[in-house]
Amino acid sequence: MSALLKVEKLEVTYHRVITAVQGVSLEVAEGSIVCLIGNNGAGKTTTLRAISGFLGLDDARVTDGHVEWRGERIENQPPHRIARRGIALVPERSKVFESLSVEENLDAAVSGRGGIDKARVFEHFPILNRLRARQAGYLSGGERQMLAIGSALMCSPQLLLIDELSLGLAPKVVDELVERLRAIRAELGTTLLVVEQNAQVALDLADHGYVMENGRVVLDGAPDRLREHQDIREFYLGAGQSSRRSYRDVKQYRRSRRWYG
Questions:
Q1: Residue pair 36/213 in contact by the 8 Å Cβ criterion
Q2: pLDDT value of residue 253
Q3: 94 partner at 20 to 30 Å CA-CA among 49, 117, 252, 259?
Q4: Mean pLDDT per 10-residue run, the chain (261 residues)?
Q5: Mapping DSSP to helix (H, G, I), strand (E, B) and coil, where does residue 108 land?
Q6: Is this model's pTM higher than 0.70 or not?
Q7: Of 24, 23, 33, 25, nearest to 1 (Cα)?
Q8: Are strands 208-213 and 60-69 parallel, antiparallel or unpaired?
Q9: Is 171 strand, coil or helix?
């Protein structure tokens, strides 16, 4: 599979002084599902916002490195231009228009640009069809996430960015979302880049994963490789006693053990 998206040595600065992401490099192959794993503050959301063009809303910009989409540089372009290229973002917050119905949210997402038929969205998320007349503000968290993903799909994105897929959702709902995203990839050919704190969920869904800590990528690989990595098992998968330490702390601890024998 060819690389649809390449991020090379990305640096993002907020308010012209605060560096939030430094030297991040990643690739997303066409037709793949890639995840970004990391704790709060690791730089995952900032990376997605840099790709999708939404940094300007937070007085931030890419100050070094670049974002390449199908061989063309797109960093620091406004969101509407990036969206027209085929990249859609499902944000962590403000996912839907609460005062509009489910159906009105889907209609608003197209904005005259064309996209898939609503019937396709309802096929992937049948509950939205049953709730199509309900005001979005009265939906559950899982229903809102489905509506947000469905709204993004209305624009027929080639790359779908999802920020915090499972945050605040029950395990049963998360399992359903994972299955729906697999089906969307298979049936629509959509490529996905998913930010997720729950490493188990991310690795069950993805073909390739990147681990971020303190604004940097510290490890990447196929899900099986990451699951077997001792530090990832200990910190992110709950197989050890380091639940209060970062991945970098674990590595430093192991180096000290080797150094002092």
A1: no
A2: 44
A3: 117
A4: 90 94 96 94 95 92 97 96 95 88 92 72 96 96 96 95 94 96 96 94 96 94 92 75 50 44 34
A5: helix
A6: yes
A7: 33
A8: unpaired
A9: helix
Contact by Cβ (8 Å): 49, 193: no
- Going by CATH, does the domain composed of 3-94+158-173+184-228 fall within 3.30.70.330? no
Q: What integer pLDDT is reported at residue 130 of this predicted model?
A: 97
CA 140 to chain centre: 21
Place of tokens 């897929």: 165
Handedness of CA 90, 95, 100, 102 (dihedral sign): positive
Measured distance CA(261)–CA(256) in Å, rounded? 8
* Beta strand ranges found along the chain (DSSP E): 3-14, 18-29, 33-37, 60-69, 72-73, 87-90, 159-163, 191-196, 208-213, 216-221
Q: Enter the tokens of residue 244.
A: 């209060």
CA distances from 18 to 21, 57, 158, 171 (A): 9, 15, 32, 36
Structural domain boundaries of the chain?
3-94+158-173+184-228
